[in-house]
Design goal:
Rossmann fold, Methyltransf_Superfamily, seven-stranded mixed β-sheet, alpha/beta, 23S rRNA (Guanine745-N1)-methyltransferase
Length: 318
């Protein structure tokens, strides 16, 4: 196999599937190929281009992707990452096993790790797999892999700009393009932990790709999330008062909720961080640059902090 193909992407071939016909994939000439001759290029940045011919409905443009990378890289959402990891470990204890399970490519005898009955090892012997759907630059995926040393990861996003960052976010993280509203290019029962952080959701596909012992972690804005910023800047997207009702209505046919946590803290905010925070959200498409600059100038130093309020829940497949 070509040495230029990222090792993490090669390691994910056992779970990746052709998005056109569902067949298994192999690597040849820096592309993914299936038995039906469907071909998907591996970008020079290291991610696999697996969107269907119709493309995706949305995705970060270059400015949004760079703003998100800067903002998350500043550590502003580190408490959120820590909370997600804690809930993930409680929901899928096998993730915390530091010695990774033996894969079929590894020599020597297999020594099974001691794990809870609800989170048994993958029968194939593969390492526990973390999927970040709507991964952006791969910040949360990389953080989870740092914590769970025996796991491997896959980040999926519609944005080629974001995937440039995600493909190099961690040496155990593969990256590919994919549309959350379409069938995922993944095998059934292949994922141990699926995280969805401020991203759209496809509950039926989440349930299909999760192993019976796996868990879904969903993080979404709370009612007061960025309240000061939304009040100060005209045009920012408002919170849907029925967001929680809609979420649970969509998940209920496929998942049981096992835990919920509310995370709230005050985030120090300067003009640069405020600009990136607006630029990385859907509000970027509704707030003209002139309006943003004027609003931030009018605030001057009066808004030195902004409220971060996030609801995080874990879910088990029904």
């Amino acid at each position: 196999m070509p040495s230029a193909v990222p090792a993490a992407l090669l390691d994910a071939l056992d779970i990746l599937r052709c998005p056109t016909c569902g067949a298994q994939l192999t690597v040849r000439d820096r592309s993914l190929h299936c038995s039906q001759r469907h071909t998907f290029d591996i970008a020079r940045a290291g991610y696999a281009s697996m969107l269907g011919g119709g493309g995706a409905r949305s995705g970060d443009d270059d400015e949004m992707a760079r703003a998100r990378e800067r903002f998350l890289g500043s550590g502003a959402y580190a408490p959120l990452l820590a909370a997600i990891a804690e809930l993930a470990e409680a929901a899928v204890p096998s993730l915390a096993v530091t010695e990774p399970p033996r894969t079929s490519r590894s020599p020597g005898p297999s020594v099974p790790a001691v794990q809870s009955p609800s989170a048994g090892p993958d029968p194939s012997g593969a390492a526990p797999t973390v999927l970040d759907m709507g991964c952006g630059p791969g910040y949360y995926l990389a953080g989870l892999l740092d914590r769970f040393e025996g796991a491997r990861g896959l980040g999926v996003d519609t944005s080629a700009r974001s995937l440039r960052f995600a493909a190099r976010a961690h040496d155990r993280a593969a990256a590919c393009s994919g549309d959350v509203f379409a069938p995922f290019p993944l095998a059934d029962d292949s994922i141990d932990l699926l995280v969805d952080v401020f991203a759209p959701r496809h509950p039926a596909e989440f349930a299909r790709v999760l192993r019976p012992s796996g868990a879904l972690v969903v993080a979404r804005p709370g009612a007061d999330h960025l309240a000061e910023l939304r009040e100060a800047i005209p045009g920012m997207v408002s919170m849907d008062p029925r967001k929680e009702e809609r979420l649970h209505g969509a998940l209920e046919p496929f998942f049981d909720t096992t835990a919920t946590r509310e995370l709230t803290y005050e985030l120090p905010l300067d003009e640069a961080r405020a600009r990136d925070l607006v630029a990385m959200t859907p509000s970027a498409r509704h707030v003209p640059q002139e309006t943003l600059a004027r609003s931030l100038a009018e605030q001057d130093s009066s808004m030195s902090e902004v409220t971060v309020s996030v609801l995080i829940s874990t879910h088990r497949r029904r």
